[in-house]
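task queued by scheduler; priority normal; single chain, no ligands, no partner chains; default sampling; output format set to structure tokens
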Amino acid sequence: MSILKEILDHKSQEVKVQRAKVSEKSLEDRLYFKKPIVSMKVHLKSLDKIGIISEIKRSSPSEGSINSNIDVEHLSKGYIEAGASALSVLSDYKYFGGTLDDVLTARKFNDCPILRKEFIVDEYQLLEARSVGADCILLIAAALSEKRCNELADFAKSIGLEVLLEVHNKQEIDSHISASVDVVGVNNRDLHNFTTSIQTSIELSEYIPNEFVKISESGITSAEHIVELKKHGFEGFLIGTHFMNHKQPNEACAKLIQEVKKLELQ
């Protein structure tokens, strides 16, 4: 069984347990559910920032434990003060060490767009995301059929959420993009051997229609990577492991942003 299949099977069971504990009506009655979102799409297009989406995660299947001593309040505020455009917060516990409360904490202390980074398989998870103040949700093309992806994207839009569609190849771009998608993210990580290369984003950039904001995910470790990706139309850069491997991830974020600005002046 592939790690993705294992995660999705576990997630389906997890949703059943959560639905039995907390009703959909209860989620819809929460304060953040009724508040307007902060647009990821708009913020990534802002010319006064680089377009960094800084990620908060404790571990991953490919890396194991990365940085378990996280203070989400301190780190989320530090990322935004460093100049990040948005936050990505892992809410999966078993494989990434995150929780839904991490998203809620980030929301309480920041006015920026927040992506709930999760393996979405059910509409219930979208209600959860809205209830804790997430602005955008992730749909992974490799994890969902075209029909199911469209259903989830449409439901997300109906409750006010923006949608980030993650793709790995041209086939997924052709089959899974729909009118309910706001941002298309190319994951540079090979799902089979976990290697990363920004060349994946570069090669797929021409196939993503211009009406969608393009972001590149995984394997971005230098200012040179970002400057090169910008040449190919990318406006957002989701960076997790590179920052989280540092003792002070927010300082690593600030340093990278300054290096990009310096390169762009040359």
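post-processing summary
- The chain has one domain: 3-265.
- The mean pLDDT is 96.
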